């Protein structure tokens, strides 16, 4: 089953329980966070509104980090999470530059720094348990479930309370769809969420990459054909020349 | 100009204790600690062992399931069976697990030796403390000894020990926390109620802020109610984090909640929206009350509260429409715990408006907690110390002084005063840090230094510990067994704290420390039982399956709650007292007439503000400030900033992030400004828990300032609480030199944090 997370930002009160629960589950140092809060305060009709935006891996359907990782340390799994293998990582930081959501971070506080990021607690999902952030959230602002069901639930919540939510599910179309969906009371641009468009950056590179064998092969064939044709003409010409000479 | 108080404090401390205060004792404790360290080696998500116990991240003591791996506590999750956690543990509870491995924790008994501490044996500590305590009692009588605490399950031992000494002076932190609320509710309802969040249709949080003063079950209850369509109304001078998920927020003028409640009562009475059946059956003094509230119209309240009259009318009409599934939260500290001159009266009005809504002991309303009685000790087998006949020295519950204050809890902010007067000569502080948490730090510290004997029992080298003659290190909460407790509620629950891992260092549980102290005092006959025996005696009438209790940590006891009013409330009339003869007898108004706050503020004075304070979700006052995980959150999010109204900041030329100087006659200090629209222009807001001045709390030391520094020592006349929001401060933008100095101090504190993480990092992973 393919999993996805659903974040209802209208229920998040910024208590940071998920941040610390994640650190404990993953044995992280205090400096190391897979979840980073980005609170925003605005005025809506003269009334303050505070929304706790966050940066946490979106688990893209077409992850750029995976496509640029030269050693296969990042993989998109069939279960939904984009997982990371520390043992394979060489710390090249390509993934940091590739990620449109600025998720992977470099461990500057380590002597031998690598990168790190949320893996949706893939190990817990494999045992039928929710990720630590979902398990710990006191307001149940974070949910986990089958991807299509989470997406449907997001739309259902918006339809049920159109005054509470703006009519947009962040993550549904961003970079071709992700496995982390957000619903909010204020527009995501105002929350500072990335606006990477709906085409996965991985596609543009992939179009080239996927065409490479065909182009390379085609070129080889075409050039070979040209070479052979020319060679044939040359040989024919030589033969004709010889025949001509012999006639002469 | 006076130097900034946080800088001053540091100098003070170096002066008092000397730069060599670290000494060999505390340095060697790090070595002892290092010897017992072990890193987590096994991977995977399954723990080796799961033990049900209770948290110590704050005073709630939520149920947790501690997951043990490789002999170390790896993490905790909420115990779904516990009424306060209901399966969730907040950030503090999660992070406190790693405090076991904080290199600054106390791991051996210490004795003051001039400006430093030296490590001594437990036996030497007990013998010397007993000798000094006996000398104090012989010279000044037993009432010269007080015991101060943050109430914990070990209180049975503490109470018995002090009783055996013959002193009545048991003091909790309560007058700096919740006594205004407790006294107001006790006068009106005869108890301090709870609330039924999940089943309510309209919840009013007046000064209460469960998103930042977290009780997980309250937060999940609010979220569940909201999911079902309940309305959440937050009333607070500050747009707090709970307001982030609320439907409406009312920016009330600080200290005027009572006026809003009086106007709500006015609307309920004049528009005949109250529950007349409930009132006729269960209320004492309604007619006098109804006549009184005539004058408190919404227009009258609008002027006082800075809300508009229509909003006041609309909100109470909304509540009345869904009564009795509508309630005003009984709250805790905020708005009417120990804030204003009118806090006790405000609490009475909260109880009264709830009663007018007919929601007392109703589903979705206010809940009268259901408890369960413990078994008693057989005096033939376990002789009890003689009853103490001497009156309390602080006057709590004493006629002619503070007759309505709670005798069992005492008056915390009177401790320094009574030391100054020579009444208190020897003191104990258990899990309590009055040097940091009481108002008026300078006077408090100076007074505590005058004691002939100060014994601190704690897990961390707190500010108070730094002033002690003896520091007795307690085993941490995950390292000790404790006495059972009953958590009252709809279904009373028996809960158990039990040892998860072996204690580090030479630490002991407080129950053992107190027993051994009693033995050293020659009072061992009053402690001829083990903790297990006590637990068996207490739970004897409750029919408890101990095997199951040890496994699950929680057991149902007593009778489940039933909807509807009990025959008789624990008030003099047995009814909900809108009119209190008890108040009248003590010389106060029997009806909760409007009491203006002690201070008023004028916006024309551009630099003068009321100073408010409050909780943040990642800290429990100063008790968690030394936790590297939680303090890292503070640095990352700059949680120690001062909240100020953006409009007023502009007048003072203050911009976001600017360093500002706060000052009044008590103190001066610096903080970075956080400009927001969502705070009443008359006030500024500081979080509690920063401003540590114990150099041994290496993570907390020197970060931020504490609102306590700016408070006077004061006593509200009804409940004797400390009136901690009746504080005025002047604010100005710091000069570049001052800002640079403050910035440098903050950078130094961050470096200390990094160095502690550097030492402990192997233990975190």
Q: What is the strand and helix layout of this fold?
A:
The complex is a heterodimer of chains A (248) and B (765).
Chain A: E1 3-8, H1 17-25, E2 36-44, E3 47-55, H2 64-68, E4 74-76, E5 82-84, H3 94-98, E6 105-106, E7 115-116, H4 122-126, H5 132-136, E8 142-146, H6 147-160, E9 180-183, H7 201-247
Parallel strand pairs in A: 1-9
Antiparallel strand pairs in A: 1-8, 2-3, 4-5, 6-7
Chain B: H1 5-17, H2 23-35, E1 49-54, E2 63-69, E3 72-78, H3 91-96, E4 110-113, E5 116-119, H4 122-140, E6 145-149, H5 155-165, E7 170-172, H6 179-189, E8 194-195, E9 202-206, H7 216-227, E10 231-235, E11 248-250, H8 257-270, H9 276-282, E12 283-284, H10 286-293, H11 298-305, H12 309-322, E13 326-328, H13 343-356, E14 366-367, H14 415-420, E15 426-430, H15 434-437, H16 441-450, E16 453-458, E17 470-473, E18 485-487, E19 493-495, H17 510-520, H18 531-539, H19 546-552, E20 554-556, E21 576-577, H20 581-585, E22 608-614, H21 628-637, E23 642-645, H22 646-651, E24 659-663, E25 668-676, E26 683-687, E27 728-733, H23 736-764
Parallel strand pairs in B: 6-7, 6-15, 9-10, 9-13, 10-11, 12-21, 15-16, 16-17, 22-26, 23-25
Antiparallel strand pairs in B: 1-2, 2-3, 4-5, 4-17, 8-14, 18-19, 19-20, 22-27, 23-26, 24-25, 24-27
Helix pairs in contact in B: 4-17, 5-17, 6-13, 8-11, 8-12, 8-13, 11-12, 21-23
Q: What features would you describe in this structure?
A:
The complex is a heterodimer of chains A (248) and B (765). With 248 residues, chain A is α+β, with helices and mostly antiparallel strands. In chain A, 36% of the residues lie in helices and 17% in strands. Chain A has seven helices and nine strands. Chain A has helices at residues 17-25, 64-68, 94-98, 122-126, 132-136, 147-160, 201-247; strands at 3-8, 36-44, 47-55, 74-76, 82-84, 105-106, 115-116, 142-146, 180-183. Chain A is elongated. The mean pLDDT of chain A is 91. Chain B has 765 residues and is an alpha/beta fold. Helices cover 32% and strands 16% of the residues of chain B. Chain B is built from 23 helices and 27 strands. In chain B, strand 9, helix 7 (216-227) and strand 10 (231-235) form a beta-alpha-beta unit. In chain B, helix 21 runs antiparallel to helix 23. The chains are: A alpha+beta (248), B alpha/beta (765). The interface between A and B is large, with 41 and 50 residues.
């Amino acid at each position: 089953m393919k999993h996805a997370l659903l974040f209802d930002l209208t229920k998040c009160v910024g208590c940071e329980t998920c941040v610390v629960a994640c650190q404990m589950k993953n044995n992280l140092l205090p400096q190391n966070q897979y979840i980073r809060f980005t609170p925003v305060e605005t005025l809506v009709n003269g009334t303050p509104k505070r929304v706790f935006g966050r940066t946490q891996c979106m688990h893209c359907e077409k992850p750029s980090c995976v496509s640029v990782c030269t050693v296969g340390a990042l993989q998109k799994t069939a279960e939904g999470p984009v997982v990371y293998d520390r043992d394979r990582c060489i710390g090249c930081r390509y993934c940091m530059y590739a990620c449109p959501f600025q998720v992977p971070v470099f461990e500057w506080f380590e002597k031998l720094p690598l990168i790190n990021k949320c893996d949706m607690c893939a190990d817990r999902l494999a045992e039928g348990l929710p990720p630590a952030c979902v398990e710990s959230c006191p307001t149940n602002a974070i949910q986990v479930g089958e991807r299509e069901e989470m997406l449907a639930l997001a739309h259902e919540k918006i339809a049920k309370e159109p005054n509470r939510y703006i009519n947009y599910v962040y993550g549904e179309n961003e970079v071709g769809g992700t496995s982390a969906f957000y619903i909010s009371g204020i527009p995501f641009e105002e929350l500072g969420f990335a606006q990477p468009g709906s085409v996965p950056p991985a596609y543009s590179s992939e179009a080239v990459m996927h065409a490479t064998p065909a182009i390379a092969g085609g070129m080889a064939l075409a050039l070979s054909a040209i070479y052979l044709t020319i060679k044939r003409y040359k040989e024919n010409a030589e033969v004709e020349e010889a025949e001509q000479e012999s006639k002469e | 100009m006076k130097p900034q108080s946080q800088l001053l404090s540091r100098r003070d401390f170096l002066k008092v204790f000397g730069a060599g205060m670290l000494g060999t004792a505390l340095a060697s404790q790090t070595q002892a600690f290092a010897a017992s360290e072990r890193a987590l080696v096994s991977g995977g998500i399954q723990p080796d062992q799961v033990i049900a116990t209770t948290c110590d991240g704050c005073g709630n003591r939520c149920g947790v399931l501690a997951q043990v791996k490789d002999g170390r506590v790896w993490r905790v999750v909420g115990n779904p069976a516990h009424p306060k956690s209901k399966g969730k543990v907040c950030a503090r509870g999660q992070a406190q697990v790693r405090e076991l491995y904080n290199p600054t924790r106390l791991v051996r008994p210490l004795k003051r030796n001039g400006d430093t501490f030296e490590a001594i044996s437990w036996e030497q500590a007990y013998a010397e403390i007993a000798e000094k305590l006996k000398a104090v009692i012989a010279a000044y009588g037993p009432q010269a000894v007080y015991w101060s605490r943050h109430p914990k399950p070990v209180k049975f031992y503490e109470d018995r020990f002090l009783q055996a000494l013959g002193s009545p002076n048991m003091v909790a932190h309560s007058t700096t926390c919740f006594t205004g609320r407790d006294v107001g509710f006790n006068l009106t309802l005869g108890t301090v109620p709870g609330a039924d969040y999940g089943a309510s249709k309209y919840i009013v949080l007046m000064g209460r802020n469960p998103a930042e003063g977290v009780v997980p079950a309250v937060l999940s209850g609010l979220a569940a109610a909201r999911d079902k369509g309940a309305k959440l109304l937050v009333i607070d001078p500050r747009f707090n984090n709970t307001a982030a998920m609320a439907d409406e927020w009312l920016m009330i003028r600080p200290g005027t909640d009572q006026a809003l409640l009086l106007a709500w009562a006015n609307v309920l009475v004049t528009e005949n929206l109250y529950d007349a059946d409930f009132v006729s059956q269960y209320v004492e003094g309604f007619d006098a009350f109804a006549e009184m509230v005539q004058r408190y119209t919404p227009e009258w309240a609008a002027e006082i509260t800075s809300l508009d009259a229509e909003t006041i009318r609309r909100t109470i009409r909304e509540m009345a429409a869904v009564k009795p599934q509508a309630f005003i939260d009984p709250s805790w500290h905020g708005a009417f715990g120990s804030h204003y001159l009118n806090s006790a009266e405000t609490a009475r009005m909260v109880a009264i408006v709830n009663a007018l809504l007919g929601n007392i002991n109703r589903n979705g309303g206010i809940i009268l907690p259901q408890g369960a009685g413990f078994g008693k000790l057989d005096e033939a087998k376990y002789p009890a110390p003689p009853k103490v006949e001497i009156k309390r020295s602080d006057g709590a519950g004493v006629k002619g002084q503070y007759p309505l204050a709670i005798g069992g809890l005492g008056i915390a902010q009177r401790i320094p005063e009574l030391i100054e007067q020579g009444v208190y000569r020897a003191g104990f502080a258990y899990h309590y840090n009055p040097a940091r948490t009481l108002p008026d730090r300078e006077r408090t510290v100076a007074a505590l230094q005058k004691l002939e004997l100060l014994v601190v029992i704690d897990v961390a080298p707190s500010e108070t510990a730094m002033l002690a003659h003896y520091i007795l290190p307690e085993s941490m909460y995950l390292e000790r067994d404790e006495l059972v407790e009953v958590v009252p509620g709809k279904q009373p629950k028996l809960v158990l704290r039990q040892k998860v891992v072996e204690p580090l260092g030479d630490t002991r549980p407080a129950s053992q420390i107190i027993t051994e102290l009693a033995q050293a005092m020659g009072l061992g006959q009053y402690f001829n039982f083990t903790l297990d025996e006590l637990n068996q005696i207490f739970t004897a009438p409750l029919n408890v399956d101990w095997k199951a209790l040890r496994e699950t940590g929680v057991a149902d006891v007593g009778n489940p709650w039933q909807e509807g009013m009990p025959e008789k409330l624990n008030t003099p009339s047995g009814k909900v007292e809108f009119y209190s003869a008890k108040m009248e007898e003590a010389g106060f108004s029997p009806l909760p007439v409007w009491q203006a706050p002690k201070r008023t503020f004028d916006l024309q004075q551009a630099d003068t503000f009321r100073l408010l304070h409050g909780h943040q979700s990642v800290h429990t006052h100063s008790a968690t400030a030394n936790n590297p995980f939680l303090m890292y959150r503070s640095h990352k999010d700059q949680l120690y900033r001062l909240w100020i109204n953006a409009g007023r900041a502009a007048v003072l030329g203050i911009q976001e992030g600017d360093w500002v100087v706060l000052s009044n006659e008590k103190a001066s200090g610096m903080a970075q400004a956080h400009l927001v629209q969502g705070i009443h222009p008359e006030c500024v807001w500081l979080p509690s828990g920063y401003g540590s001045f114990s150099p041994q709390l290496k993570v907390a030391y020197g970060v931020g300032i504490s609102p306590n520094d700016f408070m006077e020592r004061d006593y509200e006349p009804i409940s004797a609480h400390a009136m901690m929001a009746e504080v005025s401060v002047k604010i100005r933008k710091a000069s570049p030199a001052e800002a640079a100095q403050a910035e440098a101090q903050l950078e130094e504190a961050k470096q200390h944090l990094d160095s502690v993480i550097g030492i402990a990092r192997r233990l975190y992973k």
